[in-house]
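INFO  loader      accepted 1 record
INFO  loader      residues=116
INFO  predictor   begin
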Amino acid sequence: MNIKSIVRVTTGAVALAVSPLIAFAQGLQPAIPFANTARGGLIPAILTIVNGLLVISGIVASIYLVLGGVRYIMSQGEEGETEKAKNTILYAIIGLIVIALSAAIVNFIIGTVAVA
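INFO  predictor   done
INFO  writer      dumping tokens
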């Protein structure tokens, strides 16, 4: 087992171990499918599901950002590996921006529909 495999396994294990703590720190509760449908209707349930998916995709993009940084450090100046690492970092940042924008758009639209 080489050092790259060890770093990947360690990064994945840490990310899996920390992700419930991050969700708990943000005040998210364990998912109960359609828990709010009896009280608030379908819109809160859809909003809960979409926001949960956005949190999960944000965590995945953050993991790829860290993985790209580790790949960049481990590339040791090799042109091809450095370029792959830079692309991973770039795409992870673009993904985080898209996730943030989509969260804002979804919450705005759902908020507008729920008021009307």
